[in-house]
Amino acid sequence: MYYGFGFDWTFILVIIGAVIAGLAQMNVTATFNRYNKINSRNNVTAAQAAQAIMDDAGLNNVRVNHIQGDLTDNYNPSDKTLNLSDSSYESTSIAAIGVAAHEVGHAIQDQKGYWPMKLRSMFVPLVNLGSTAAFPIIILGVVLGMNYTLIHIGIYLFSLILIFQIITLPVEFNASMRAVNILTTGNILSQDELPAVKKVLFAAALTYVAAVLSTALQFLRLVLLFGNRRD
Ligand SMILES: [Zn+2]
Asked: Residue 141 C-alpha to ligand 1 middle, in angstroms?
């Protein structure tokens, strides 16, 4: 029995994906909050830590900015800014320093021309196209009496989102690995403060894995609904 696009049994895959993504998000927030209460012994802020690590690495063309939001920290390769959010910029916690070091990890990837990061940047226009156009085109195909050419174009566009999220995984894991290495060899944190940093960064990395799973489930749903039909 076909109940129509949107309310058929395969919608459960979308719900499972949303639950996985939600749990990963709750986990990273809880882990960050736990270690955000513990101040680093050296009492430097995340912004100072980021600056010190970048000075050490010879990254003198990157600017550290304070941006709004919680855990919206990012490194922007197009204007070489390291953007630390309200939750980290002035914080002296182990968690905030871990997040800042992760973002510096991205700046170092950029400096070294780390190719998965370049590939990811090249993919941004494609993923934007996929996010905006995939569902409108699929829905249009359904509305126009199951036009499978349109529906399949929509599914291909949706797959761009999945490919992008998969390319993001090595970029994120590598940035965290660099962060842990820097903090292990540097003098910003003590050795016994590192396990907490690893937990925060691992929880953050899990959100990217969850995003892949969630998108893969949505993709599977589209294939189950429309994939075995010829144009
Ligand atoms: Zn990152």
From this structure: 36
